[in-house]
């Protein structure tokens, strides 16, 4: 077996390298670690490694086929934030930056917002409750809930204004854990 220690980076072929660089830098908050004009490509980092996202200009540029929902391959890239307040801030920042939030979901142990980059690549930002793997060692079940969205200039949806995970979320966690715990006994 290979002993992997993490995911190093994701390489994206893009229609417009400059537009993608601006999006991942100005909207997503990555910084440029290196640009390679001779061979092409921009290495961008979250700061915990040399590169998180590599951006490379596609030879067909704007004429290249866009990712299609439901096709084989990458569905989205997920970025984790360290707090629920950071998820709220990310939501607000995306709206202020003119990014369309496509959907939001409560995945029991995490809450997520979904959107796309300038090329249509799916992206997710999520906050995961502390000790999620410990809380759900046998899985979390499939009790996802769709969360309502708001538009730029509108008040934030109620689910973003609450403290999470609160008592209702933890009661759901305990309810879902009981059948799994009984099956192990």
What are the defining features of this structure?
185 residues; 2 domains; 9 strands; single chain; globular; four-stranded mixed β-sheet; 2,3-Dihydroxybiphenyl 1,2-Dioxygenase, domain 1; alpha+beta; 27% helix; five-stranded mixed β-sheet; Signal recognition particle alu RNA binding heterodimer, srp9/1
Task: Walk me through the structure.
With 185 residues, the protein is of the alpha+beta class. Helices cover 27% and strands 24% of the residues. The chain has 5 helices and 9 strands, in the order βαββββαβββαβαα. The protein has helices spanning 17-27, 84-96, 132-135, 158-161, 167-184; strands at residues 10-14, 31-35, 42-45, 53-57, 77-80, 103-106, 110-116, 122-128, 145-147. The strands form 2 sheets. A 5-stranded mixed β-sheet has the order 5-8-7-6-9, covered by helices on one side. The chain is globular and about 55 Å long. The two termini are 30 Å apart.
């Amino acid at each position: 077996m290979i002993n992997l220690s993490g995911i190093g980076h994701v390489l994206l072929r893009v229609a417009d390298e400059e537009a993608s660089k601006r999006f991942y830098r100005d909207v997503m908050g990555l910084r440029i670690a290196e640009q390679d004009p001779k061979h092409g490509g921009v290495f961008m980092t979250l700061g915990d490694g040399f590169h998180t996202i590599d951006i490379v200009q596609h030879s067909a540029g704007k004429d290249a086929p866009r990712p299609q929902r439901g096709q084989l391959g990458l569905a989205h890239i997920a970025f984790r934030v360290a707090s629920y307040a950071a998820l709220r801030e990310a939501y607000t920042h995306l709206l202020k930056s003119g990014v369309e939030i496509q959907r939001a979901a409560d995945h029991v142990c995490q809450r997520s917002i979904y959107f796309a980059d300038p090329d249509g690549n799916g992206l997710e930002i999520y906050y995961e409750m502390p000790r999620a793997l410990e809380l759900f060692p046998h899985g979390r079940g499939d009790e996802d809930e769709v969360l309502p969205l708001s538009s730029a200039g509108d008040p934030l949806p109620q689910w973003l204004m609450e403290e999470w995970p609160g008592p209702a979320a933890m009661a759901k966690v305990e309810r879902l854990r009981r059948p799994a715990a009984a099956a192990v006994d």
